[in-house]
Amino acid sequence: MQVKVLSTRFDIPDAHKIEVAKEHGAYSTLEKVFSMQPEEVIELVKASGLRGRGGAGFPTGLKWSFLPKNIDKPVYLAVNSDESEPATFKDRYILVRDPHMLIEGIIICCYAIKSHAAYIYIRGEYTTQAKALQAAIDEAYAAGYLGDTIAGKDFQLDVTVHRGAGAYVCGEETALLESIEGRKGQPRSKPPFPAVEGLYGCPTIINNVQSIGSLPFILANGPEAYKAYGTEKSPGTHLFGISGLVKKPGMYELPLGLPILEVIEKVAGGVRDGRTLKGVIPGGSSTPVLTPEEAKTVTLDYESMAAHKTMFGSGGIVVLDDTVDMVKLVENLISFYHHESCGQCTPCREGLGWMLKIVKKIVRGEGSTTDIDLLVELCDNIEMKTVCVLSAACTMSTRSYLNKFRHEFEAYVKSNASTQTAM
Amino acid sequence: MSDRSQLIETGKPFTFDAQRDAEFERLVPRYPTRESLILPSLWLVQEQEGWISAEAMAYIADRIGTFASMVYEAATFYTMYNVHPTGKNHICVCRTLSCYLLGKQEIVDYLKHELGIKPGEISTDGQFSLEEVECLGHCGTAPVVQVNGEFYENMNVDKLKELLATLI
Predict the structure, then answer these.
(1) Residue among B66, B82, B98, B145 with most chain A CBs within 10 A, to mutate
(2) Is A176 in the same domain as A250?
(3) Is B71 within a domain?
(4) Could you tell me which of A260, A283, B19, B81 has the fewest CB atoms within 10 Å of its CB?
(5) With an 8 Å Cβ cutoff, is B155 touching chain A?
(6) CA nearest to B120, candidates B162, B71, B82
(7) Interchain CB contact of A32 with B (< 8 Å)
(8) Is residue B62 part of a domain?
(9) Cα-Cα-Cα-Cα dihedral of A100, A104, A106, A107, to 10°?
(10) Per the domain annotation, does A170 fall within a domain?
(11) Chain B: nearest CA to A223, how far in angstroms?
């Protein structure tokens, strides 16, 4: 089931070094790219059907075409390497094992969108990864692939690594821009969208590491070769991170469209310790959980996930077995989102705190049925009433556990009721 | 947790060492506004000193030519900036989702017992500090621990024992 499109050089020793990467094809698309007009590059990426790999799945080429025409301001590229959604650990493989694929992708993108400055926003926790990336960028400068000219072409491009410092919200694209500008990571109201008014008030494209990393393959082999993988509406491959209570957790490159249960079974070895499957988180902690029954018909693509009222997200699959206490898991998730709220919007800052207090009360065995209903009501009242979707990430996932595993919440409440009767 | 809004003064002025000074100057032309240098500068201070004092924040503000409040805002918002001193070995245990499912609590309990400190505290000899942190992005090799920026994956109590022995 596994394929090698983005991960071609991942297992080659020292492929993070420029001379080894070049022996295996790195930077080989640049001659072709520079022979094309920037608009032709955009059309080619559009034709590939590549969709943003950060979570939202918005078509990459289309995003680029939203840049205003005849701009008299600089255009910026911000590469989102925040990778902060729990259960997501795919982009760091690109950063460490094949950073030159990312740099080549950045050159392709910047040429297409006529940008001369790219910032790679990398999460602060990625310490060793940031060093590896910076080393590769230094190599690229020394080899003439970045700087005043690119591979002999009169095209100037600077790439700067900008480290975050532990804020989940900075994965949200406007919070990311605020963070590059030196402020706390509080998302901006949209519109204006970043393509029109982004970094330093200038038109800005924000793309995920994996989206940018997909460009060299598309340029080298053409849109049809990319579309040969995946489904019609979700073409290509994805670096899936499979974790949780599974035999062989890890990062696997797969075409989109495969049945999720088959992937868990055949690629990741199935549920650990002979236990049975209780649920699957399909695309990072914020995506609504699937029951084993629902998961039977789910395939790993944007359309199937939407049809099952969940999301493809970042491709971070978490396997939950029958030992998992769903109420305590929800406590863990709400605690995460509450901690990561930037504090800008009251429904999120205060509301997630209320949700946490209520779920803790239920876990302590002091809750009642009213508390379960109150949690559902809070989800409804918080969701989509904030500047960004951080609060929705918490409420959408929490609601799915409340709906699909309500009996577990009720069991906690009942144990409380029986204690009270006994007293 | 200690109150991140409370800054600590050392009573001594701060300056970048030669290496950090050069890195600061390399970054200046990379950004169209000097405020963009706030986050990189805070990292440079933390690399140099291990934590960020009130004097260091004032130094950054002067060096950049911005308000001290801008630097304070960033330093206190972003939780990875240590606005208080840490132990020589700053141990962060991931507490989120996959690490939670795969036994992070056992890791935390062992460290609390072994080091005699709770998350947010420093051991009396100054050797260790402990913190529970949110997702470290190593879910496929959970549970994971980070010590002074280095990752230790697939952790368990036996591996922790070995690790602590190398740190002391």
Answers:
(1) B98
(2) no
(3) yes
(4) B19
(5) no
(6) B82
(7) no
(8) yes
(9) 140
(10) yes
(11) 31
What pLDDT is recorded for position B3? 84
Same domain, B105 and B35: no
Question: CA-to-CA distance for A104 and A21, rounded, in angstroms?
Answer: 11
Domain range for A143 is 18-227
A vs B, Cβ pairs < 8 A, gives 143
> What one-character-per-residue DSSP string does chain B give?
---TT-----SS-----HHHHHHHHHHGGG-SSGGGGHHHHHHHHHHHHSS--HHHHHHHHHHHTS-HHHHHHHHHHSTTS-SS---SEEEEEE-SHHHHHTTHHHHHHHHHHHH---TT-B-TTSSEEEEEES--S-GGG-S-EEETTEEE-S--HHHHHHHHHHH-
Number of structural domains chain A divides into = 3
**Domain total of chain B:** 2
Give pLDDT tens digits for A249-259.
Answer: 999 999 999 99
What is the ipTM, given to two decimal places? 0.97
| CB < 8 Å from A in window 53-82 of B | 66, 70, 73-74, 77-81
**Is some CB atom of chain A closer than 8 A to the CB atom of B96?**
yes
**A420 in reach of chain B (CB within 8 A):** no
- What CATH code is carried by the domain that includes residue B26? 1.10.10
**A263 and A380: one domain?**
no
Q: In chain B, positions 31-50, which contact chain A (CB-CB < 8 Å)?
A: 31-33, 35-40, 42-43
Distance in angstroms (rounded) separating the CA atoms of residues A251 and B149: 22
**Alpha-carbon gap, residue A354 to A347, rounded angstroms:** 10
The rounded percent of chain B whose pLDDT value lies above 70 is 99
- Establish if B128 belongs to a structural domain: yes
- Is A137 within 8 Å of A129 (Cβ atoms)? no
Q: Let me know if residue B82 belongs to a domain.
A: no
Write the DSSP symbol of residue A159.
E
State whether residue A316 sits within 8 Å of chain B by CB: yes
Residues of A whose CB is below 8 A from B60: none
Chain-chain contact of B136 with A125 (C-beta, under 8 angstroms): yes
What is the domain extent for residue B139? 89-167
> Kind and range of the H or E element at A242?
strand A237-244
Residue ending a domain, among A227, A250, A265, is: A227
Q: A75 — contact with chain B (CB < 8 Å)? A: no
* CATH code for the domain in which residue A312 is found: 3.10.20.600
pLDDT in tens, B92-116: 999 999 999 999 999 999 999 999 9
- Domain boundary, last residue among B57, B77, B97: B77
Same domain, yes or no: B73 and B114:
no
Helices (H), B51-156: 54-64, 68-77, 97-101, 104-115
- Domain assignment present for A232: no
Shared domain check, A310 and A417: no
Whichever domain contains A371, its CATH number is 1.20.1440.230
Last residue of a domain, one of A227, A252, A287: A227
CA A191 to chain centre: 22
